[in-house]
Amino acid sequence: MADQKPTRKKSALGRGLGALLEDSPAKNSTKTEEILPEVVKTGIFEIKLEEIQVNPYQPRTHFDKDALAELAESIKVQGIIQPITVRKLDQNEYQLISGERRFQASKIAGLEKIPAYVRTANDQQMLEMALIENIQRENLNALEIAHSYQRLLAECDLKQEQLGDRVGKNRTTVNNYLRLLKLPPTIQAAIRDQQISMGHARALINIEDVEKQLAIFKKAVDEELSVRKVEALVKALNEGKPEKKSEPNLDPVRKYEMNKIQQRLASHFGTKVNLKANDKNKGEIKIPFTSASDLNRILEILEII
After folding, report:
1. Active-site positions?
2. Which end of the chain is more exposed for a tag (fewer CB within 10 A), N or C?
3. Residue bearing the bigger pLDDT, 197 or 38
4. In 79-122, which ranges are continuous DSSP H helix?
5. Is the CATH number 3.90.1530.30 carried by domain 17-138?
6. Residues 216/233, Cβ–Cβ less than 8 Å
7. Would you identify the CATH topology of the domain 183-239?
8. Coiled-coil intervals in this record (predicted)?
9. Is pLDDT of 266 > 70?
10. In 223-279, which ranges are E strands?
11. What is the C-alpha to C-alpha distance for residues 305 and 228, in angstroms, rounded to an integer?
12. pTM
C-alpha cells in the first residue's frame, strides 16, 4: 500500500482515545510536547509482520484458538478491513498498540505484511491507548475489563471520574467492575472462564464472609442458578437471623422460601405466625391468639367451627 499523507481524525470519544491519538498541531500544547518530543504522526503503512513486536501492555490474557482460526479464514478471503495500530521503535522495528487478534490471525493466514496506523507515543501513552481501545473495541470478559480499569487508575494516574470519561462509563459502572477484584481468586477465575456472569459476581460481592461467599458460589455453579436466584440467596443470607440448632443444615434458599411462607400465613391469619422447619421438612407452625374471640376468629378461618 502506498504511503499516505497524515490526515486529521475526529473522534466521538471526546477526551478518551481521540485525545490520545490527536495529531493536530494546533491542539498539541507545550506540555504535551514535553512528554512526547515528536508530534504524533498518523499514517497507514504496509508493515512486515516479522518487524512487529507484541504489545506488553495488552489487557487481553486469553485468545480463543477457534475464534482466531475463523478470523484467519476471513482475512484470507476479505483481507484486513481494519488496520492495526503500532508505534515505531526503530528502523524496521514496531510495537503493537492495538489489534493483536488481527495480527495473530494474519500470521495464521500466512500474510507477510499488514496495514497499520503508525503512531509516536511514550510508554504511558501507549498503555492508555492500548487499554482504552481494547476496552471499547474488544469483547473482553468482565475480569479483564476490571484489570484494565485498575491499570488505568494505577499506572496512568487517573481518578475514577477521569477513567469514566475515558471509557464512556459512569462512575458507578466503573466501581462495579473494580469491586470484582476484591472477590476470592476462585470466583475471579470463574468470571474469567465464563462459569458465572457479571450479574452473579455482583450479587456475591455483597457477602462479607468469604466462606459463605464461596459456598453460595459453589451452589450457583453446581446447580446452574440464575442471577435472580443467587440474588435471593444473598438477600436471605444477609437479612436472615442466625440459624438455630433445630435447623442447622437449612440452606439460604430454603430459609428464604420458608420466610416467604411464614409471611403469607401471617397475612392470611392476621396475626404473627411462627414457622419452623429443618432440612428433612420436619417442623411446626405456631399461631398465637390473644383472647377467646381471637381464637374463634382463627378457627373460623380454618373452617373448624
Report:
1. 100
2. C
3. 197
4. 100-108
5. yes
6. yes
7. Arc Repressor Mutant, subunit A (1.10.10)
8. none
9. yes
10. 274-277
11. 43
12. 0.45
